[in-house]
Write a structure and sequence with these properties.
Layout lengths: L17 H15 L6 H8 L3 H5 L5 H24 L7 H18 L1 H9 L5 H26 L9 H13 L1 H4 L8 H15 L9
Helix pairs in contact: 1-2, 1-4, 1-6, 4-5, 4-6, 4-7, 5-7, 5-8, 5-10, 7-8
Length: 208
């Protein structure tokens, strides 16, 4: 032992770490709008000084980027797993799985997904998020096309349109779903997959 004092580790104000600041920022962005929210607004919401927030993050844009990544990372993983499925499942099975799991992702990350659906490409961070969303649409459209080629879905609808409609149905949950409401995530996932895929069955398979 040298007898020298151990350097003190820098710490933020007790009770606030990066995750807590991010949660509050997302709530504030959704309530006030990202562009209308300043770091000063966030500091007042948290009861901190602006320097205390900058101890954890470098900018408002960094908070936005982390929130959008939170919304997109798991959804990207779900779509990637379905697109690169090594288990030999049919495209139809993988497509249904994507829709169902997308509901689970949205419910688990509803504030971040809500923020994602409101971005308009006003910054580099927002443009990057929109590009990731477009690539997800393209990969889902490819799965739709493969399922139609299998004969499991009707083939008279453009796959990119079907992809947008499927994601749109899932994304509509941000407008009304509440974790303490009447429906649990499994019930909602069942309902969406049933409504979507029964309506997409080939015409010869539908009841007259």
């Amino acid at each position: 032992m040298t007898g020298e004092p151990t350097p003190r580790r820098r710490r933020g104000r007790p009770g606030y770490d990066q995750a807590a600041i991010l949660r509050t920022a997302v709530e504030l962005f959704n309530r006030r709008g990202y562009d209308a929210t300043s770091m000063g607004d966030l500091a007042r919401e948290l009861g901190l000084t602006k320097p205390a927030i900058y101890h954890h993050v470098t900018s408002k844009e960094q908070l936005l980027g982390r929130a959008l990544d939170d919304a997109l990372d798991e959804l990207t993983a779900v779509v990637t797993e379905a697109a690169e499925d090594p288990a030999g499942r049919s495209a139809y099975e993988r497509l249904r799985g994507v829709v169902r799991r997308s509901v689970e992702v949205l419910v688990a990350h509803q504030p971040s997904v809500t923020l994602l659906l409101r971005v308009r490409g006003n910054s580099g961070v927002e443009l990057a998020a929109l590009d990731r969303r477009r690539r997800l649409d393209e990969r889902l459209a490819a799965l739709v096309a493969d399922a139609a080629a299998e004969g499991a879905l009707r083939d008279d609808l453009p796959p990119p349109l079907v992809s947008r409609l499927l994601f749109g149905m899932v994304n509509s949950l941000v407008e009304w779903y509440r974790a303490d409401g009447a429906y649990d995530p499994a019930t909602v996932a069942d309902a969406i997959t049933t409504v979507a895929f029964d309506g997409l069955r080939p015409r010869g398979d539908q009841a007259s």
